[in-house]
Design brief:
Subcellular location: Cytoplasm
Radius of gyration: 19 Å
CATH topology: Rossmann fold
Binding site for NAD(+): 117-120, 220-222, 246-248, 264
Active site: 135 (proton acceptor)
Binding site for substrate: 72, 75
Helix content: 25-40%
Enzyme class: transferase
Bound molecules: ligand BJW, zinc ion
Length: 273
């Protein structure tokens, strides 16, 4: 495509071929070609009616728990109906290749680290291990009052086609289930809302990996939401080359070592294949 120039692609391929400790930071654009809507791009009706910026907050959950709970269950169900794309598969293949090369397969010393802002499970379903879900997961739940983890998958309503507008309309207004431990609590999704701290373990693992990396790829994020957007800047401060893969320019673009203006499912297989 226009903007994906051969010289840059060659330069990045060389970095990829030599990387021993690459870190790949992913955002919503990573899953766009799997059919998962991003947060800030122009959206279809549903996402205009129920904007993530308005619903992804603790205030929204307190004001209308059923709406927020149902919206998350609807998204979980939509994502179950999506499949990993060629970009997810290329990253998993690169991780396997590096594992095989240095004998760390399956261990905590894995040589390719995936750090994702995404709450979906498409990296895992493509066969990659994820070092850190810094914004949590749609498939974990805990009590909003006492933090007790959910004992069972709370399930999703199954009316209508998964992810469709009819499906959302049918399942809206399901109350969140009661906490398994405390008397008054209800479950909430295990995601990080605006104004909440990132989970300490995943955040520390992400910072550590980025500072020790020899190459950082930033794929499909607007680099708008803090503190995740600061991770590539930490890498640059540590002298690590940073490559951005995104069809659009972002706030990070002026700072990166190389920019590949293309989509995740097109560019990543071309780099790694
Ligand atoms: C493609 C593509 C293709 C398309 N291939 N690419 C001022 C006021 C209030 C708060 C703040 C403030 N300034 C800073 C803050 C803090 C706030 C923040 O950053 N806000 C910004 C809006 C300014 N951050 C926080 O609150 C964080 N916590 C925190 O700071 O704690 C300390 C603190 C405590 C108490 C008080 C204050 C501070 C928490 C942030 C949590 C973010 N949570 C969400 C929701 C998760 C749950 C859910 O899914 O519902 O995480 S928001 C949403 O944004 C989600 C995402 O992970 C995150 C990032 O989005 P992402 O991935 O970048 O997606 P998009 O849509 O933005 O971009 C997609 C990109 O893909 C685009 O660039 C496309 O071009 C590209 N693309 N197709 C490749 N095929
Ligand atoms: Zn509880």
């Amino acid at each position: 495509s226009a903007g994906l120039d051969a010289a840059t692609l060659d330069a990045v391929r060389t970095l990829v071929d030599h990387a021993q400790r690459p870190v790949v930071l992913t955002g919503a654009g990573m899953s766009a070609e799997s059919g998962v809507p991003t947060f800030r791009d122009a959206q279809t009706g549903l996402w205009e009616r129920f904007s993530p910026q308005e619903l992804a907050t603790e205030e929204a959950f307190r004001a209308d728990p059923a709406l927020v709970w149902s919206w998350y269950r609807w998204r979980a169900r939509m994502i179950r109906a999506c499949e990993p794309n060629a970009g997810h598969r290329a990253l998993a293949a690169w991780q396997r290749r590096l594992d095989a090369a240095d004998g760390t397969a399956g261990s905590a010393e894995a040589s390719l680290h995936v750090v994702t802002q995404n709450v979906d499970d498409l990296h895992e379903r493509a066969g990659a291990r994820v070092l850190a879900h810094v914004h949590g997961s749609l498939f974990e739940h805990r009590c909003a009052v006492c933090d007790a983890p959910a004992e069972h998958d709370p399930g999703v309503a199954d009316e209508g086609a998964a992810g469709s507008e009819a499906d959302l309309a049918a399942m809206l207004r399901h109350e969140p289930p009661a906490c398994p431990r405390c008397p008054d609590g209800t479950l909430r999704p295990g995601v990080v809302w605006f104004g909440e701290m990132l989970p300490a373990g995943p955040w520390e693992r992400a910072v550590d990996a980025v500072e020790r990396a020899d190459l950082v790829l930033v794929v499909g994020t607007s680099s708008f939401v803090q503190p995740a957007a600061s991770l590539p800047l930490l890498a640059l401060e540590a002298g690590v080359p940073v490559v951005e893969v995104n069809p659009e320019r972002t706030e990070l673009s002026p700072h990166v070592t190389h920019r590949l203006a293309g989509t995740a499912a097109r560019v990543l297989p071309a780099l790694i294949g």
